[in-house]
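Hi R.,

Here are the chain sequences for the assembly we discussed:
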Amino acid sequence: MKFCVIGAGNGGRAFAAYLSSKGHPVNLYNRSFSRIADIKKKVGVIASGEIKGYFPCNLITQDLELAVRDVDVILVVVPASAHKDIAEKIVKYLSQDQIILLNPGRTFGAVEFRRIIEKKGIAFPIFIAETQTLLFTSRQLKKNGVKILKIKDLVDFSSFPNKDTFFVYDTLKDVLPQLNPVDDYLEMTLNNIGMLLHPIISLLNAGTMDCGKEFKFYAEGATPRTCEILETIQNEFNKIFKILGLKQFRFCNWVNKSYGVKKKCIYDAIQNIKVYENINSPKQLITRYFTEDIPTGLVPISSLAKFLGIETPIIDSVINLSSVLCGINFKNEGRTIGGLDLEEIIKKRITTEELIDLGIKQKIPIN
Amino acid sequence: MKFCVIGAGNGGRAFAAYLSSKGHPVNLYNRSFSRIADIKKKVGVIASGEIKGYFPCNLITQDLELAVRDVDVILVVVPASAHKDIAEKIVKYLSQDQIILLNPGRTFGAVEFRRIIEKKGIAFPIFIAETQTLLFTSRQLKKNGVKILKIKDLVDFSSFPNKDTFFVYDTLKDVLPQLNPVDDYLEMTLNNIGMLLHPIISLLNAGTMDCGKEFKFYAEGATPRTCEILETIQNEFNKIFKILGLKQFRFCNWVNKSYGVKKKCIYDAIQNIKVYENINSPKQLITRYFTEDIPTGLVPISSLAKFLGIETPIIDSVINLSSVLCGINFKNEGRTIGGLDLEEIIKKRITTEELIDLGIKQKIPIN
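And here is the predicted structure of the full complex:
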């Protein structure tokens, strides 16, 4: 099977090494040259950690057309805020039955990709899926290096539309046995942990970050009171999840599942995750913790709530203040239910009982 | 002239020393005993700094009735969030022509006091005024001490209703020549600098404060990007000020007037105020910077905006997040246009031209 990896950063290099180590030809694409210059010179990446050695690539390029030509699977490994741009550029080079897997999709990544492809009127089947998190914990090293700290055991993924999930799973399961198919795309894509943690902790430590002082992002930045904001936002998520008949969003359950830590409140959970202990804050204020997690996480969630007639004042407050800090109108830039033509799909998920139970007046015609 | 000083903290002790030094009898009241125990033992305060020496008090008491009996002027020197409580307790002990001066009133302090007195149906005149800022920069010391770092040259004040301002001025001008009468109560009370600076800088450094790390509150906490939030909030203030025909709110003008520092943006202004340089952050997260400045500053401003049909998303976001951090519903607890029966007074200040100019549909009947 032939692969194209889009993005040669932390995750993209790890994928290139991993796939090459399994004997699959890999085309590695990156938009800017600086990130692939040394990989091109050496015709491959040098991995350390869980995978060790030199792994050649079939092609290292800034030419998207060459990168995706004749490949079976396209792995998109860029910040979710760049998915739209990639989709718009890639669409004219796609061919029948190609699989596009977003690593990760954040909230509604596969929908956004699908909508852009639909608008171009492509007649042949393309399969679009997204993972919930990146398969690797990895760090890009100097030159053509990558350190693969961990390959996760299990990574949830799903396709949009749902029905494509098993084709993607069947195609990829031998190469990427970690992929765990989730029946319900909506449930998977809304369980976006990054959007809960990153923007809020960044916002409530904005002064410290902006004046250039480093701190332990979780150990010091997530305090009992700042975690109250996380708890409140989790409650806002769950008003949405309830009305859509989805399992409640529980950060503590995710921590238990992912790290084997059993705690009852978000603060205790965060403070007991070993790998979080020494994670430093970013060296500047404006990072993907805002520019990715807000437009592809909190904005779609807020938009979904609005569509359902649910108020999310705390999520909206985080979006508002972050927009001023970053100088970006995230509500305009981000993914929304309207912008993604998701109205009809969402409507079908609402039950009248749940509306009444929540004390919300029925604002939406229920099919 | 006989004085009562309510509150024996930083400001109250300074007032007691100042008035006693001028030969006026002073009754000093405090709700809790601990703050006045040593003053009672020594029957006065020891001042250092701009005023030096031992200054006796006429009475040091926890009995509000005794404290205000037969005095001409009552100086209230407590956090503005306690004004309501003081007003409710003091009302039954007031006598004709007494002056009550709130130091400072924050936004609508004198209105709140007036409304509580009105509800009790008091038939004789009482004069209620508020200053914009505390006359002293002072620190309470151990035992019965106070250090008076600075007596300000000029402190704006005004009465509610406006017409009482000159009676208060005439009565107090010899004892407190620093009092500068402002014709328009509304303009004075809305120019509340604390509500702009304190909550926002605290919120955007909440993690650092809550994990117990000290930092320079202004020098490190007010950064280029956190000051963008201050600029945006100043713009929100000015939409209100414009519709009410008030002079625009300019933090930089205030800094120029107060500290002789001429700068064009809030960040540069803050970073060039000498006395701000070494001010440390509070040692804990929940302080008057939230519990006073939000309910008696940002909440009334937000309520006023709502009444005028103006959106203030950034102010509201600060209120929302601070409410969760503090576990207090500030929107319910704080001063509002409705709660203070200010609707008719505000309506009279609006001009139709200003509504049209702002592109706001006329929501309010204009008298």
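Residues 362-367 of chain A have pLDDT under 50 and may be disordered. The CA atoms of residues 14 and 146 of chain A lie 6 Å apart.

Let me know if anything looks off.

Best,
T.
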